Amino acid sequence: MGQFAHDFDRRGFLRAAAAGTVAIGAATFAGAVPAAAAQTPATDARSRGACLTIPKDAIGIQLYSVRDKVSQLGFRVVFEELSRMGYKEVEFAGYTQDTSILGRQITVPEIRTLLDDNGLRAIGSHIGIGAFRSNLQQELDNAEILGMPNIGTPNAPSDTPTVAGYKAAAEEFNGWGEAATARGLKLYQHNHWAEWAFASDQPEVRLYDVFLNNTDARNVYLEMDVYWAFVGQFRYPGFDPAAYVRKHPYRYTLFHMKDGTSDPNAADGYDMTEFGAGDMRYQRFIHAIGPFGNHHGIWEQDNAPGTQPDPPGSLGAAQHSYTALADLLS
Question: Which among 10, 229, 242, 301 could bridge 288 via Cys, Cβ 3.0 to 4.6 Å?
Answer without folding.
Answer: 242
